[in-house]
Write a structure and sequence with these properties.
The chain is α/β, with parallel strands linked by helices. The chain contains 25 helices and 29 strands. The chain is elongated, with a radius of gyration of 35 Å. The chain starts with a strand and ends in a 5-residue tail after the last helix.
Length: 678
């Protein structure tokens, strides 16, 4: 080891209590000093000498070796040299050069540190001190000139600069330090540092000053967080509103923000919009971005704290972007307080990062790009090594790659509690060429939330509570016995999505061939364990689920008899949220057959899913989309279902085997039209 950097950082401080842990740009001063040393090419090791456990832990996290500083060397009268010499003895180290670096300078440039070290290593100097070039005239309190004759005032350009020691760093030959016991000896040189790096923190006012400057001096760095929360006005917009003659507001946003938010969500980062205002414009933009929004907040800080607790997020790994004083509270709660460049001065001063693009002009996109830059690459290698299983048997039918697409008519609750309507829908599915129909099975007393049970609802059977309505439309043993009999007569499989454990037990008694997990049940591990215990095939829908949530579900269900369904739980589904390439993602990640469960209007997206490799397709079906009930509007009518099955079978034929060859139908045109030249 040729060069050792020692950072003295005692716990006591007269001017600023616990100064070395004070945050500047969201980073403790001791961490900033350690990082500057680690980034300096010429420094081999960094040591922090401290008497304070909090400083010691922070230094370790920053990458420094910690030397415990004894009490006799930790008082206000102890010299920095004594701390350096003690660190050398404690380490048993004798480097050629030792660097004393002080936390009181927040903006140390690693390049300046390296340049000063090289001057000592190259023999140019024995000791180098950092200094600010200055042409200032100094005076005594008595009015005498210190570095000038008051009677002779040369012009600035006629004077050589002098240097004001700024206390950032001192570079010394170790042998000279031991011999003299002082940092200045032999040939002393000055390493110039720019004015913006030369501020020394001794008083609270100095700390406030460097905090205000940090966003403009610190170099941009990736923002490593798990969640991004933004204010709306002034962040997504330019803080102006356009009002038409009817009083309707419009705002200016950047289209690039939408792609940025999409990239964030794709990389697994949670996104939330918070707004003091209650405004339909905010809600509309949040819907467009596909992110949740909390509006009309009188106390954003408390709401933010509660939301982070509910989501289980570490505040240190959360970014909050604001622009006005009502954002100061939530900014103080997170590890990455961020401001727009035109934010209120107090907001800029409190920010760890100040963006370069204003609100409404790409501020959100800039932030998203920096967050995504810090995210690890997706574990593609892990996906490639996962075993790939063959088709899954559902009764006498194989479902998987290379097999005919398994088409499921999702009756769900579209039977409205009417067994005759259920039979007619079974006939629709059979006539169209489906292989199966699916229902939903609930125990209403378990599944209906307590606060909703007593709510009144208008139904075709009159006004009743929501619990009474759910019980009225739920089929029991007699109805499902009739369903099983009618499906057998029409050559169809039937099964259901159980929403609770008693419903699993009910369906087992009905001896269904397969179980389906609705998207709402992906995180219900009690339900998943009950399904896994049946030993039967399971079809897992993945709507409104993260990969981490799906991973946990797969851990319980296993993969041997698992079929996944890509789904987006928006009713009806807009094309921009279909994200069909996820079919490939799920296949590669889990090595299981993957299908598609659609809630869109029309057939195009379902047919595209088949071309991307969906091994089964599930669509809600109805006799009439205008019928009463929550799912009818997003369902296929009989003609639509018939066309879907017909077109799926055509696509299966058209996909071929991928082998390039001349087909019989091409022979005659080839003989007639092909021109061969040499």
């Amino acid at each position: 080891m040729r060069v050792l950097a020692v950072v003295p950082a005692r716990g006591g401080s007269a001017g600023v209590p616990l100064k070395n842990l004070a945050l500047v740009g969201g980073v403790p001063l001791v961490t900033r000093a350690v990082r500057a040393c680690l980034r300096a090419e010429s420094i081999d090791q960094v040591v922090v000498s401290t008497d304070h456990e909090g400083i010691a832990e922070t230094a370790r996290q920053a990458g420094a070796v910690v030397v415990e500083r004894p009490a006799e060397l930790s008082g206000a009268a102890a010299s920095s040299e004594s701390a350096v010499l003690h660190a050398l003895d404690a380490l048993g180290a004798e480097p050629e050069v030792v660097v004393l670096v002080q936390c009181t300078s927040a903006f140390i440039d690693p390049a300046d540190l390296s340049a000063a070290v090289r001057r000592v290593l190259d023999g140019e100097a024995d000791s180098v001190v950092s200094g600010l070039p200055t042409h200032e005239f100094l005076w005594t309190a008595a009015g005498s000139g210190v570095n000038h004759d008051p009677a002779v005032r040369p012009r600035r350009q006629d004077r050589e600069p002098q240097f004001r020691e700024n206390g950032a760093f001192y570079v010394m030959r170790t042998a000279g330090l031991r011999e003299h016991g002082h940092r200045f000896f032999g040939t002393v040189a000055v390493q110039p540092v720019p004015a913006r790096h030369a501020i020394e923190i001794d008083e609270p006012e100095d700390l406030e000053l460097v905090r205000a400057l940090a966003p403009f001096i610190d170099r941009p760095e990736p923002i490593d967080v798990d969640c991004v929360i933004t204010d709306f006005d002034g962040v997504h917009t330019d803080d102006r509103a356009y009002v038409d003659s009817d009083g309707r507001e419009m705002v200016l946003v950047s289209r690039s923000d939408g792609m940025g938010v999409s990239l964030l969500k794709r990389s697994g980062v949670k996104v939330l919009v918070m707004s003091t205002e209650q405004n339909p414009v905010v809600a509309a933009r949040a819907r467009k971005l596909g992110v949740p929004v909390l509006q009309g907040l009188a106390d954003k800080r408390t709401v933010l704290r509660d939301w982070l607790n509910i989501e289980g997020l570490d505040p240190a790994r959360v970014a909050y972007v604001g622009n006005d004083v009502n954002d100061l509270g939530p900014m103080a709660e997170v590890g990455w307080p961020i401001a727009t460049p035109d934010a209120h001065p107090r907001v800029r001063a409190a920010a760890r990062v100040v963006l370069t693009r204003p609100g409404g002009s790409g501020a959100v996109r800039e932030l998203c790009d920096r967050v995504v830059a810090a995210r690890p690459e997706p574990p593609a290698a892990e996906a490639r090594v996962r075993p790939h299983f063959g088709p899954v048997a559902i009764g006498d039918v194989l479902v998987g790659d290379g097999e005919p697409v398994y088409v499921i008519g999702e009756i769900g609750i579209n039977h409205n509690g009417d067994i005759d309507l259920a039979r007619r829908l079974i006939d629709v599915a059979a006539d169209a060429g489906c292989q199966a129909v699916k229902f939903q099975k609930r125990t209403p007393a378990i599944c209906v939330p307590e606060e909703q049970k007593g709510q009144l609802r208008q139904t075709p059977w009159g006004e009743m509570t929501y619990l009474e309505y759910k019980e009225r439309t739920e089929f029991g043993r007699d109805e499902y016995a009739q369903i099983a009999k009618h499906c057998a007569e029409r050559g169809l499989h039937w099964f259901a999505s159980p929403w609770d454990v008693p419903s699993v037990e009910f369906l087992e008694e009905m001896d269904v061939l397969v179980h389906k997990v609705a998207s709402a049940g992906v995180a219900d591990h009690e339900l998943l364990r009950a399904l896994a215990a049946t030993g039967k095939p399971v079809i897992l829908s993945t709507g409104m689920s993260t990969l981490a949530e799906i991973d946990a579900a797969v851990e319980i269900l296993g993969t041997e008899k698992l079929i996944m369904m890509h789904a987006t739980s928006t009713y009806p589904l807009p094309p921009e949220e279909a994200n069909l390439r996820t079919i490939t993602t799920l296949k590669e990640r889990y090595g299981v057959p993957v299908g598609y469960s659609g809630h869109e209007r029309g057939l195009q997206i379902s047919l595209a899913a088949v071309t991307l490799g969906a091994v089964c397709v599930e669509r809600h079906i109805t006799l009439d989309r205008t019928m009463w009930g929550s799912d009818h509007a997003a369902s296929l009518e009989p003609a639509g279902l018939e066309h879907l099955v017909r077109d799926i079978r055509i696509i299966e034929q058209a996909m071929g085997d991928g082998v390039k060859r001349v087909f019989p139908g091409e022979e005659a045109p080839k003989a007639r039209l092909r021109r061969v030249t040499v």
